[in-house]
Design brief:
Length: 378
């Protein structure tokens, strides 16, 4: 028995047929079978379909492509992943509204209705300790409020966004730039497994597709398309995260940016976005206040009730007077041991003892050069 997916996968295998044209054809003809059974004149008449593409749509699928499709369908039957088509009821509704939605979405994990209330958090693969820490905090706060955090499973800021959501038992979605049967970067496989337990991993690329560099700008439109808005945490002026922000604007999504030290090259991207009108983000309240009118009424009411109690700053567990005194002098910026000794009235040995106590409690971290900084605290 032929799977309903087979026609969709065969159409995807036609050379030169991109997402925009695929979507236009589906909207016009209703199904892959109707498209391929229509004559070339009918296909060309809808506009922007060349005669050569119309002919290609009627050509038989190559044996190699057929073999690959058979493997895809078997993998679906074996439960390795699912494939959603553009007309499926469980295809993400918000993603359908962009001009070039992926005709098919490969998925591991599970999408839920509440993923409609999603926010994308993206940034540099070389995110700083401060940037990653703030991203975990912000993503965790937003996930705790009920937002689904969307990102790209990349190193740096993306990973911190997923981790922040997971730390509060929130939902998170990862969008890949490779086939669903691959994980890139490979060292994020444990993180991917956790995401699949508390969300979903998505890809528009067929099984086996390598993580080519040109796939990542393409997948960024899905990250923004799934979301109410995009938050850029850290990015250089030429970062792919700015591509995501641009796509978000084209899709009529909100754009947010996290400011930082002006001497840090990783703040140039967010600062540029802020100059261009992006909402400056210092905490979760900045995001919620901006998108509150866009939310579903029941979710908006829930947030409005919580708004006064939203966490603005990390809070530490109960500390003794000496521990609190020293802890208050630390931040996400590294502070040297010598500076701390000068700032405090304690002896060097007492300062070292207090720092050790704070480190054991998981509140601070020592980094090379006898420097100390706060960790992300929930």
């Amino acid at each position: 028995m032929t799977s309903p997916l087979q026609g969709w996968l065969e159409l995807l295998a036609v050379k030169g047929l991109g997402p925009v044209t695929y979507t236009r054809l589906i909207n016009r003809f209703g199904s892959p079978e109707a498209i391929r059974s229509s004559n070339a004149h009918a296909l060309v008449s809808i506009g922007e379909i060349s005669p050569s593409l119309a002919r290609a749509l009627h050509q038989p699928i190559s044996s190699d492509a057929q073999d690959h499709i058979a493997k895809e369908l078997q993998a679906v039957q074996d439960g390795r992943f699912s494939i959603m088509t553009l007309v499926d009821t469980h295809y993400p509704p918000r993603l359908k509204t962009i001009t070039d939605p992926p005709p098919l979405l490969w998925c591991t994990g599970q999408l839920q209705d509440r993923d409609q209330q999603a926010l994308a958090v993206v940034g540099s693969r070389k995110g700083s300790h401060i940037g990653r820490t703030f991203t975990r905090q912000l993503s965790g706060d937003l996930a705790a409020l009920g937002f689904t955090i969307v990102s790209g499973l990349a190193r740096g800021i993306d990973a911190a966004a997923h981790e922040g959501a997971l730390a509060t038992s929130g939902r998170t979605l990862a969008v890949l730039g490779c086939g669903i049967d691959r994980t890139y970067p490979p060292e994020h496989d444990p993180l991917r497994q956790r995401i699949e337990q508390h969300g979903a991993v998505l890809s528009e690329f067929p099984m086996g597709t390598p993580p080519h560099s040109y796939h990542f700008p393409q997948r960024n439109r899905i990250i923004s398309g799934l979301s109410l808005g995009v938050i850029v945490a850290e990015a250089t002026s030429r970062s792919g995260s700015l591509i995501t922000a641009r796509m978000a604007l084209e899709q009529n999504r909100e754009v947010f940016a996290v400011p930082g030290n002006v001497t840090n090259t990783l703040t140039r991207g967010p600062h540029r976005l802020i100059k261009d009108g992006a909402k400056l983000v210092e905490n979760s309240l900045d995001v919620v206040e901006e998108i509150l009118p866009m939310l579903e009424p029941s979710f908006r009411e829930q947030l409005e009730k919580q708004q006064d109690g939203l966490p603005l700053q990390p809070s530490a567990p109960s500390l003794g007077a000496e521990e609190q005194h020293l802890f208050d002098r630390l931040s996400l910026e590294p502070v040297s041991l010598d500076e701390l000794i000068i700032q405090c009235t304690y002896s060097p040995s007492e300062v070292m003892s207090i720092l050790l106590s704070l480190e054991i409690k998981g509140l601070i971290k020592q980094i090379p050069g006898l420097q100390y900084l706060r960790l992300n605290i929930k």
